[in-house]
Input
Amino acid sequence: MPTHNINLTPEQSQSINDRIRAGRYANVSEVMRAALRALDQDEAEDLAKVEALRHAIAEGMEGPYLPAFDVIQNFREQLVERESKKHQKELAG
Output
């Protein structure tokens, strides 16, 4: 296997040593391989999320579209209905 020299902060070095002392890893190479696997997984998940967002945006751009007036009117009607029910509960209670 190829060898690489890396520079770590004291905190990173301590984190690696703590994991080895705890017995979770046998050596620095195992810690680094696990870290790279986790990084690969995180990046793959991020790419999947971006792709899902792109897909959702593309679907949204296809429509159907609702006229803004209809959306606002529907929202107003829901608010009036909600306030009416709230008022009826207050009178009954």
Summary: The radius of gyration is 28 Å. The chain has a mean pLDDT of 94. Residues 28-62 form the longest helix (35 residues).
